[in-house]
Amino acid sequence: MFFTLKEASIWTGLSPFELLWQTLAVALFSVLLALKTDGVSQYGDMSWTKVFVPLFVANCVNAYFIAIVFIRSVLTGQVKKALQRSGWTLVFLALLSIYHVLLCQKLQGTSDFSHPETMAPLFILLVLTVFRSR
C-alpha cells in the first residue's frame, strides 16, 4: 500500500537523509500554508515567499549534501557513479526549485505565466521519474 523507504529512495533517486529533509520541509510548509490561508492574525499577512522558505532551505541543504557526496565519491575513484547520482539529483532539485519559485510568483500575483506554464517543471520531473524508474 505504501512505499517502503528503499522503494521511495529508488523512485525519487534521493537518499533516506534527503527524503527526511524533504519530508520535514513539506510538514513545516503545510503548517505555514494552513496558517496563511486561515488568516491567523500574525501569520495571515505573511508573504508567500516566507511560506515557501522551508522548501527552499530543504533544496539548498540537499544540494549541499549532494556536493559533499559527489566530492567524496570522486576522491574514492567512483567518478561514473558520482556523476550519475549527482546529475540526476541536481536535475531533480533544479526542476523542483524552479517549480516552487514559479508557484510562489503565481500565488503572489507577480507572474504572468498561465497555470500549465507554472506546472511545466513538475510535468517534466514526473516524465523523467517515469523514465528513470524503468
Automatic annotation (TrEMBL):
<feature type="transmembrane region" description="Helical">
    <location>
        <begin position="55"/>
        <end position="75"/>
    </location>
</feature>
<dbReference type="InterPro" id="IPR019396">
    <property type="entry name" value="TM_Fragile-X-F-assoc"/>
</dbReference>
<keyword id="KW-0812">Transmembrane</keyword>
<feature type="transmembrane region" description="Helical">
    <location>
        <begin position="87"/>
        <end position="108"/>
    </location>
</feature>
<keyword id="KW-0472">Membrane</keyword>
<feature type="transmembrane region" description="Helical">
    <location>
        <begin position="114"/>
        <end position="131"/>
    </location>
</feature>
<feature type="transmembrane region" description="Helical">
    <location>
        <begin position="12"/>
        <end position="35"/>
    </location>
</feature>
<dbReference type="Pfam" id="PF10269">
    <property type="entry name" value="Tmemb_185A"/>
</dbReference>
<protein>
    <submittedName>
        <fullName>Uncharacterized protein</fullName>
    </submittedName>
</protein>
<keyword id="KW-1133">Transmembrane helix</keyword>
